[in-house]
Design brief:
Elements lengths: L1 E4 L5 E4 L4 E6 L3 E5 L4 E4 L3 H15 L1 H13 L1
Antiparallel strand pairs: 1-2, 3-4, 4-5
């Protein structure tokens, strides 16, 4: 889960695994795999950084890298 801020200043906690797409229009709009769209104050690069950190914390990125390394063997 990542902590973000809605445009009205209210904090939200979002399940990063459900993020399908992030775009700046110029506000940052996050589209979830459910089709729901959420607009936040944070810039896209900040959201991406938070997602990367979260994925590393839960071991998702490491597991993917190990899987790729094992495929080549």
């Amino acid at each position: 889960m990542i902590s973000l801020t809605r445009l009205n200043g209210k904090p939200i906690v979002l399940n990063a695994i459900l993020i399908e797409m992030i775009e700046e229009t110029p506000d940052t709009m996050i589209t979830l795999t459910t089709g729901k769209k959420i607009t936040v104050l944070e810039k896209a690069e900040v959201v991406v950084s938070l997602v990367r950190t979260y994925m590393q914390e839960i071991g998702s990125i490491r597991a993917t890298i190990k899987s790729k390394d094992m495929e080549g063997s």
